[in-house]
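Input record, target 12 of the design panel.
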């Protein structure tokens, strides 16, 4: 991977648009931020997965629930 994009939007539709544009522009990676400041990263990457085919997807932070 050479170039990745970290998304900090809080809207699922904008997330889909940015993922599509990132892939079309040749970016190698698309990463979602933490759910504290962002839409749930699992939801964001699900949307990105549905409209992309080449770009690598990842999550910046996944908090573990303590017990």
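The sequence produced for target 12 reads:
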């Amino acid at each position: 991977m050479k170039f990745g994009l970290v998304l900090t939007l809080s809207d699922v539709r904008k997330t889909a648009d940015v993922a599509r544009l990132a892939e079309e522009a040749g970016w190698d990676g698309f990463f979602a931020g933490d759910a504290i400041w962002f839409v749930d990263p699992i939801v964001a990457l699900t949307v990105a997965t549905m409209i992309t085919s080449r770009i690598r997807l990842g999550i910046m932070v996944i908090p573990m629930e303590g017990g």
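The longest helix spans residues 12-24.
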